[in-house]
Write a structure and sequence with these properties.
FAD-bd; FAD-binding domain-containing protein; FAD binding; alpha+beta; 9-stranded mixed sheet; binds flavin-adenine dinucleotide; 427 residues; FAD
């Protein structure tokens, strides 16, 4: 695509996986972009993250796929989840079947989160990266531009603000006003840890945790495990939810993340079988996360010249492992509309309207799916879901997430709607 320098400037609030990816591709395309990150450097929790076919298509479209794949340090493969009983001998309930019609829809991989950011950081111009910049508000300046205010008292003006500041987004306030109306605690907590796989193998575990991702389902709790780093490290997330299924309550007090005593985790999973407990006993210092979600989902991700991407727009439950993928789809869509040859300062609102017509319905469908998935994983046993029910609910659950070609969708939409951009650009 031939790119031309633009007559508008962009400020990105937040340099997580989505904000950094967005900053790199806009900077590469010649757009004047600055990214403002609250932390002292780009950083992520030391845990894994999985990318499905739709995430990889977006990364390819952004020109970041090769860099990320190299950092993952393993060949792309798609190892599907085995759903097993958390209790007893961990009976196999459902071996997920991917009905992919193309090879591309059968590709995915996992990566250590810090490795993702380490690989991408050198691609961003350091002169356009500001750390220790916690944004406290986004307002309209007298100049008509967007005014960012930071906790250190400094300010910055840009024509367009991209809010990539995660689930507790400050930028989102421009769109929803009082954010307590849409941000809720899911009554679910997650304990996270990483354990060397060799150590577990030595314990004679029967569940093949080193070769496949597993979801160990139960009543009011479930475990997710998947191997990373060429099958040397097991990523573990252990969820405990309210017995009534998803019930949103007001935002949990800070901190949302803390270190928890191991005994608390072991007590929570009492009743789970031997292999599950072996895995959990090896997480010596679990981190404990309060899981929040945006609900009801935002109808729009845009207000004036402020636009949201990633968790700021659609922070969802982690049960489909699809949050970043939706963020990458946002970033790809925004990148294409902003770098379209006809997009200029005068028609930014039109470009953003195209973005806003594409993204909320798709991302929110995945968000709703993440809630349904959690209810099934935490609903196995007694009077809730039988093994047969679980199979029925889970069959094809990832089809709408994975079998989606963001590159083709955006290309088609831009072809249909570029006249709107051109007419305003020349008027
Ligand atoms: C347990 C768990 C497992 C998950 N597993 C997966 C998975 O396998 N696959 C998947 O696709 N997704 C997964 N997700 C979801 C995924 O982690 C998120 O969707 C993703 O991290 C969102 O990225 P982001 O860049 O939008 O936001 P964030 O990662 O939250 O980044 C926001 C950035 O903005 C900065 N910031 C915040 N506020 C401000 C401010 N006011 N001013 C300046 N900077 C600010 C923060 O410091 C941070 O760097 C999981 C989530 C959880 C909790």
């Amino acid at each position: 695509m031939a790119l031309s320098p633009k007559d508008f400037t962009v400020a990105i609030v937040g340099g997580g996986m989505c904000g950094l990816a967005c900053a790199i591709v806009l900077n590469r395309s010649g757009i004047d972009v600055n990214v403002f990150e609250a932390a002292t450097k780009f950083g992520e929790v030391g845990a894994g993250v999985g990318f499905g076919p739709n995430s990889l298509r977006a990364l390819k479209g952004l020109g970041l796929y090769d860099t990320v794949l190299k950092a993952a340090n393993e060949p792309p493969n798609m190892r599907l989840f085995r759903f097993i009983a958390g209790t007893g001998d961990h009976e196999l309930i459902y071996d997920y079947v991917n009905l992919a019609k193309s090879e591309e829809d059968h590709t995915g991989f996992g990566i250590y989160r810090p490795a993702f950011l380490d690989a991408l950081t050198p691609l961003m111009d350091p002169a356009r990266t500001r750390f220790n910049k916690r944004c406290v508000s986004v307002e309209k300046a007298d100049s008509g531009r967007q005014l960012l205010r930071f906790a250190d008292g400094s300010t910055f003006e840009a024509d367009l603000v991209i809010g990539a500041d995660g689930i507790r987004s400050v930028a989102r306030k421009v769109i929803v006003g009082d954010e307590s109306s849409c941000l809720g605690f899911s009554n679910t907590v997650a304990y996270r840890g990483l354990v060397p796989i060799d150590v577990l193998k030595a314990k004679g575990m029967k569940v093949p945790v080193h070769t496949r991702p597993h979801c160990w389902i139960g009543l009011g709790k479930h475990l997710i495990t998947f191997p990373m780093r060429n099958d040397t490290l097991l990523n573990i997330v252990a969820f405990i939810s309210s017995p009534d299924g998803l019930k949103l309550s007001p935002e949990h007090p800070q901190p949302w993340v803390r270190t928890a005593p191991q005994q608390e985790l072991l007590d929570g999973f009492q009743g789970f079988g031997n292999d599950a407990m072996t895995v959990l006993k090896h997480i010596k210092t679990p981190s404990l996360w309060s899981i929040h979600t945006l609900h009801p989902p935002l109808k729009s991700f845009v207000a004036g010249r402020v636009v949201l991407v990633g968790d700021a727009a659609h922070g969802m439950l982690p049960h489909l492992g699809a949050g970043v993928g939706q963020g990458f789809e946002d970033v790809y869509t925004l990148y294409r509309v902003l770098t379209h040859p006809a997009t200029k300062k005068t028609n930014l609102e039109t470009a953003l309207a195209i973005y806003d017509d594409m993204r909320p319905s798709r991302a929110n469908m995945v968000l709703e799916g993440s809630i349904k998935a959690g209810n099934v994983y935490d609903g196995f046993g007694e009077s809730k879901y039988s093994a047969e029910d679980v199979v029925t609910h889970l069959t094809g659950q990832w089809d709408p997430v994975w079998f989606y070609d963001i590159v083709a969708e955006v290309s088609d939409t831009l072809k249909q709607r570029e006249n709107e951009l051109f007419s305003l650009a020349t008027s």
